[in-house]
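FORM 12-B: Structure-to-Sequence Request
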């Protein structure tokens, strides 16, 4: 593929922080249970009256600013999300409107579970490689707090809201996507669902009364699949990139659960001090988790020129994949 460079990164986390202790005031749970099972200590939640797209707009503006570019430089906007601003027309138009993309570049949503950002990166790279576009704004945004059942302790403690963005520009040289492995295992589509509110089961007073518009998850199944899927995709992407695991400077795993990350790292035999983690502070922000993690690492000066990054994720569908990127 042609070279691409991450010219800027940005992220946004809502101001409101909810700790495990806050949750245990209204829910039969505890800080000890949540921390020991998931590694999560707190999450940021969007205020109920704030439009979720505002998070994506803020993250995108920061990424463009750091890239030294403006809205008119964007050739393509891709937005990865599980829960769009509206079912029609999705999230991308709202973010395009907020950014003022008046020159009418194409924009679209990608829905690939929590792997949406990784899929989006591969799609962006391929479109750049084809010569169709030169500068891509890729946003991962999630406000799952609006779709979790706050009375279901098995799911609500896991998620947080947020957004992350990257600006990708074409470049000469050897930077860019070295290899990728993307997969979907539809036999696992029952692991994570919001059963109502789509066309199969449109929202109705009955579906709302039955709580079918909330996210439902088979936690054990997700756990087992996640570890093996991310391991497989990472090994495959590494092989396609023509490198070995030892060449990877930083592993950026989707922040779903610290125990999943630890199990993955153990199976890969990857050094723990080369794994980026922020789940303790932000919980699982789904498609936003990797771009937030990346932005924090870039701003902390952890990622250097020429470093090789492996971005790996799994999610609803079940979609999973890994992209290997030379910085
Ligand atoms: N607080 C206290 N007790 C709880 C809580 C809670 N928040 N949640 C569940 N429990 C209880 C259950 O009710 C159950 O009690 P019971 O035996 O009396 O019925 C007990 O703890 C064990 O429940 P399990 O669901 O079997 O707990 P498990 O050890 O599997 O941990 C967890 C649950 C943390 C969700 C785990 O399965 C997991 O991490 N799965 C992966 C989830 C995940 O990563 N989801 C992200 C998916 S979205 C995405 O990123 C693609």
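FORM 12-B RESPONSE
SEQUENCE OUT:
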């Amino acid at each position: 593929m042609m070279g691409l460079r991450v010219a800027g990164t940005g992220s946004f986390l809502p101001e409101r922080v909810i700790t495990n202790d806050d949750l245990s005031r209204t829910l039969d749970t505890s800080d000890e249970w949540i921390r020991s099972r998931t590694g999560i200590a707190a999450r940021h939640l969007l205020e109920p009256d704030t439009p979720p797209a505002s998070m994506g707009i803020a993250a995108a503006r920061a990424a463009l600013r750091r890239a030294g570019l403006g809205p008119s430089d964007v050739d393509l906007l891709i937005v990865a999300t599980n829960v769009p601003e509206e079912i029609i027309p999705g999230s991308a138009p709202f973010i395009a409107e907020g950014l003022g993309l008046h020159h009418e570049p194409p924009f679209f949503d990608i829905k690939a579970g929590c792997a949406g950002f990784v899929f989006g990166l591969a799609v962006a790279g391929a479109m750049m490689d084809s010569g169709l576009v030169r500068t891509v704004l890729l946003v991962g945004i999630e406000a799952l707090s609006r779709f979790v059942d706050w009375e279901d302790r098995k799911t609500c403690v896991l998620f947080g809201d947020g957004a992350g963005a990257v600006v990708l520009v074409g470049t000469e040289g050897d930077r860019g996507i070295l290899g990728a492995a993307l997969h979907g295992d539809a036999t696992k589509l029952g692991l994570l669902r919001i059963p109502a509110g789509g066309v199969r089961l449109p929202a109705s007073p009955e579906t709302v009364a039955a709580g079918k518009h909330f996210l439902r998850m088979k936690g054990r199944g997700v756990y087992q699949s996640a570890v093996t899927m991310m391991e497989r995709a990472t090994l495959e992407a590494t092989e396609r990139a023509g490198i070995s695991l030892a060449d990877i400077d930083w592993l950026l795993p989707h922040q779903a659960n610290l125990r999943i990350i630890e199990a993955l790292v153990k199976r890969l035999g990857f050094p723990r001090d080369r794994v980026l983690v922020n789940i303790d502070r932000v919980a699982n922000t789904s498609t936003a988790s990797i771009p937030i993690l990346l932005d924090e690492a870039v701003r902390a000066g952890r990622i250097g020129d020429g470093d090789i990054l492996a971005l790996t994720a799994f999610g609803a569908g079940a979609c999973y994949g890994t992209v290997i990127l030379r910085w």
